[in-house]
TrEMBL record, chain A:
<feature type="domain" description="NADH:quinone oxidoreductase/Mrp antiporter transmembrane">
    <location>
        <begin position="140"/>
        <end position="424"/>
    </location>
</feature>
<dbReference type="GO" id="GO:0016020">
    <property type="term" value="C:membrane"/>
</dbReference>
<dbReference type="GO" id="GO:0015990">
    <property type="term" value="P:electron transport coupled proton transport"/>
</dbReference>
<feature type="domain" description="NADH-Ubiquinone oxidoreductase (complex I) chain 5 N-terminal">
    <location>
        <begin position="73"/>
        <end position="123"/>
    </location>
</feature>
<feature type="transmembrane region" description="Helical">
    <location>
        <begin position="185"/>
        <end position="204"/>
    </location>
</feature>
<feature type="transmembrane region" description="Helical">
    <location>
        <begin position="490"/>
        <end position="510"/>
    </location>
</feature>
<dbReference type="GO" id="GO:0012505">
    <property type="term" value="C:endomembrane system"/>
</dbReference>
<dbReference type="GO" id="GO:0008137">
    <property type="term" value="F:NADH dehydrogenase (ubiquinone) activity"/>
</dbReference>
<feature type="transmembrane region" description="Helical">
    <location>
        <begin position="335"/>
        <end position="358"/>
    </location>
</feature>
From TrEMBL, chain B:
<comment type="similarity">
    <text>Belongs to the complex I subunit 4L family.</text>
</comment>
<feature type="transmembrane region" description="Helical">
    <location>
        <begin position="34"/>
        <end position="52"/>
    </location>
</feature>
<keyword id="KW-0793">Thylakoid</keyword>
<keyword id="KW-0618">Plastoquinone</keyword>
<dbReference type="GO" id="GO:0042773">
    <property type="term" value="P:ATP synthesis coupled electron transport"/>
</dbReference>
<dbReference type="GO" id="GO:0030964">
    <property type="term" value="C:NADH dehydrogenase complex"/>
</dbReference>
<dbReference type="Pfam" id="PF00420">
    <property type="entry name" value="Oxidored_q2"/>
</dbReference>
<comment type="function">
    <text>NDH-1 shuttles electrons from an unknown electron donor, via FMN and iron-sulfur (Fe-S) centers, to quinones in the respiratory and/or the photosynthetic chain. The immediate electron acceptor for the enzyme in this species is believed to be plastoquinone. Couples the redox reaction to proton translocation, and thus conserves the redox energy in a proton gradient. Cyanobacterial NDH-1 also plays a role in inorganic carbon-concentration.</text>
</comment>
<keyword id="KW-1278">Translocase</keyword>
Length: 620, 101
């Protein structure tokens, strides 16, 4: 039975996909009478099925070595495209995480989307995402990973653009699609360039190949840079990070999924590609560089945001930056652990803020306040999410960050500094958001704010409990470092940095010493961070401007030059006809003249050989 | 006397005929120019007949035919000119440019 479940593990993405298809009949134009709710329930059922299946599969795979299944997808001359599946502990656990978080997000959406008519589209897309991510973690081939990433990019476009009557949603969905697409396209270049070098797209075979590969350093560097640019866009890393900020225009339940797992799809591919990436030191340096800039930059930006959802989205970028650092320094395990703990904590944070937004309408943290006494569940969820995200022992991310930092302690001490700085900034920004929402006095918008209904509270509480139990789970799976080999200095540093960040922020925002809203002495800096380093403007004056210019130029060339040349040919023949018709002058004598002229010219040409030479010598 | 002189004279006559054919405004003078052309050809034929074929004189036979045909052609041509004149009250060639573009 267990073996059967394990062998049929490829069914898990299919359940979700079936859910996505079954949801569609309840679109408002197809089934007009029942309302959209069954779409959600069908999807919940399918997700439940997928979750149970992966739970049982995880139990049975736990003691077994990884198994591989391979379907032949396409075989042409010289190219065998096989859909390789790897059933390992990690992939099944990742599926469990995806289906579990999706289940919670879908239950949450039952409450959150209560007054919305578009359940069919929404749940169908959630199902598509679940299917895509499960397929991604199962699939053991770079080619199919790329394929799935592209499908998910399209899914992001549709899901962010759910409420397409809002202009900001349309621009946000557009940016999310194009930014990720650019990264994906660069990734495709890398994927295509990898095949002639390695001869395979299978991750396991790639890892074997990378061990003995002797590549030209330049080729290795270029290849690696292309391969990381896809995850760069997916994980919302600088400079391809604007889309995540604008994707916050989408509905909250999808944000749960996006912040926790969708952005991690890029990290997953990155972790899988780590052996190939470590072929070139330049690529490792680039990974570390991008990760550092993003994690520090984004965690600073998060501090300066006033939008409740955007505060969190930049923290996601920052943590994905830490994953980049971990992969860049060849610590894949730490990266995987960080992805797991971040996903859980981040999902909890989004759920909590979503619950606040649902009843308080505004997303502006400066207009919220004093919710703690009336919204204890949301507040507790927020606190636990925060502690689970920053390095606060004994909760999850502490161990992930500790693992990363103690590994870096010897190799690259300055990166430990980066981790600690990011931790301080994130602690600061999350506590600031907590203090603004739950602390202080109630403001007009949060004067009457009841706790949310059970559909939204239940998944929040389950996830809260799971976040609290995560360290126990990790311990029972012996994923925690043993007492002997963990670096106590680093642990203390991390702990104190979290406490430092939280305390400073709490003191600043919960006390009345400093007038709110807080103005930094340097207004330029505050604006710079609040406007995300003016990234939209940067895009506008660089890439968008140049592409726009080139396309306008190409359009002009097309309309004037290319089109003009062809039109000119037509015009020339038209003009030729119009002009040459005057040769038919109507004068009989003129016709006679042309006849004689023609005859004499013909005669001259035919007889030229007999007298031309003499004529020429006479002339010259 | 040699053949060339005859041929040159005929060529000159032919060219004069052509000049007249192309430049005359009077339609009757055009017909007269055509007669000049035909006579230039007759001169040629007679000269060739005398210098190159004195026994069989096929050129002279040709000439007889051409004179005959030229007479007929001139008659028909004058008839056409008359027909045009009846309609348009003029024989000016430059008034006959109706069938243009």
């Amino acid at each position: 039975m267990n073996q059967l479940l394990l062998q049929s593990i490829w069914l898990i993405p299919c359940y979700a996909l079936l859910g996505a298809i079954f949801a569609l009949p309840w679109s408002p134009t197809i089934i007009r009478r029942t309302g959209p709710r069954p779409a959600g329930y069908v999807n919940l059922l399918m997700t439940c099925l997928a979750f149970t299946h992966s739970l049982i599969a995880l139990q049975s795979i736990w003691k077994l070595p990884p198994q591989h299944i391979s379907f032949n997808w396409l075989s042409t001359a010289g190219l065998e495209l096989t859909f390789d599946i790897e059933i390992s502990r990690v992939s099944v656990a990742a599926m469990l995480l995806v289906t579990g978080l999706n289940l919670l997000a879908q239950i949450y959406a039952v409450g959150y989307m209560e007054m919305d008519w578009g359940w069919a589209r929404f749940y169908s897309l959630l199902g598509l995402f679940e299917a895509g991510m499960c397929a991604l973690v199962l699939c053991n081939s770079l080619f199919f990973s790329y394929l799935i990433l592209e499908i998910l990019t399209l899914g992001t476009y549709l899901l962010v653009g759910l409420w397409f009557s809002q202009p900001l949603v349309v621009t946000g969905a557009r940016d999310a699609f194009l930014t990720k697409r650019v990264g994906d396209l660069l990734l495709l270049m890398g994927v295509v360039a990898l095949l002639p070098l390695a001869g395979t797209w299978n991750y396991s075979e790639l890892a074997v190949w990378a061990k003995t590969a002797h590549l030209d350093p330049k080729i290795a560097a270029l290849l690696g840079l292309l391969l990381i640019s896809g995850p760069m866009g997916k994980c919302a890393q600088f400079p391809l990070h604007l889309w995540l900020d604008e994707a916050m225009e989408g509905p909250v339940p999808s944000t749960i999924l996006r912040n926790s797992v969708v952005v991690a799809t890029g990290a997953w591919v990155l972790i899988k590609l780590q052996p190939v990436l470590s072929l070139s030191p330049i690529v490792s340096a680039a990974l570390v560089g991008i990760g550092t800039v993003t994690s520090v930059g984004a965690s600073l930006i998060a501090i300066a945001q006033i939008d409740i959802k955007r505060c969190l989205s930049y923290s996601v970028s920052a943590y994905m930056g830490l994953v980049f650092i971990a992969v860049g320094t060849q610590h894949s395990e730490a990266a995987l652990l960080l992805v797991l703990t971040h996903a859980v904590a981040s999902a909890l944070l989004v759920m909590s803020t979503g619950a606040v937004v649902w009843n308080s309408i505004t997303q502006d943290v400066t207009q919220l306040g004093g919710l703690w006494s009336r919204r204890p569940i949301s507040g507790l969820a927020y606190i636990v999410g925060t502690l689970g995200l920053i390095a606060f022992p004994p909760l999850g991310s502490f161990w992930a960050l500790l693992k990363l930092a103690s590994a870096l302690w010897v190799e690259k001490p300055w990166l430990v500094g980066v981790v600690i700085v990011v931790n301080v900034f994130t602690a600061f920004s999350l506590t600031r958001e907590f203090s603004s929402i739950f602390g202080g006095k109630p403001k007009q918008m949060s004067e009457r704010s009841p706790e949310v209904s059970w559909q939204m509270a239940l998944p929040m509480i389950i996830l809260l409990a799971f976040t609290l139990h995560l360290p126990l789970l990790l311990q029972s799976l012996s994923l925690l470092p043993s007492w002997a080999d963990f670096n106590k200095d680093v642990a203390l540093l991390l702990m104190w940095s979290s406490i430092f960040g939280c305390t400073i922020s709490g003191v600043i925002y919960l006390s009345d010493f400093i007038p709110k809203p807080i103005r930094l002495p340097v207004k330029v800096l505050q604006d710079l961070l609040a406007y995300d380093f003016y990234t939209p403007k940067l895009y506008k004056v660089s890439i968008v401007f140049s592409v726009d210019m080139i396309s306008k130029l190409a359009d002009i060339v097309d309309r004037l030059v290319i089109d003009g040349i062809v039109n000119m040919i037509g015009l020339a023949s038209l003009g030729g006809g119009e002009g040459l018709k005057y040769s038919t002058s109507g004068q009989t004598q003129f016709y006679a003249f042309t006849v004689l002229l023609g005859i004499s010219l013909l005669g001259a040409t035919v007889t030229w050989p007999y007298w031309g030479h003499q004529f020429l010598s006479l002339m010259f | 006397m040699s053949l060339q002189y005859f041929l040159l004279l005929a060529a000159a006559l032919f060219c004069i005929g052509i000049y007249g054919l192309i430049t005359s405004r009077n339609a009757v003078r055009v017909l007269m120019s055509i007669e000049l052309l035909l006579n230039a050809i007759n001169l040629n034929l007679m000269a060739f007949s005398n210098f190159l074929d004195p026994t069989l004189i096929k050129g002279q036979v040709f000439t007889i035919f051409i004179i005959t045909v030229a007479a007929a052609e001139a008659a028909v041509g004058l008839a056409i000119v008359l027909a045009i004149y009846r309609n348009r009250d003029t024989v000016d060639m430059e008034q006959f440019n109706l069938l243009k573009w």
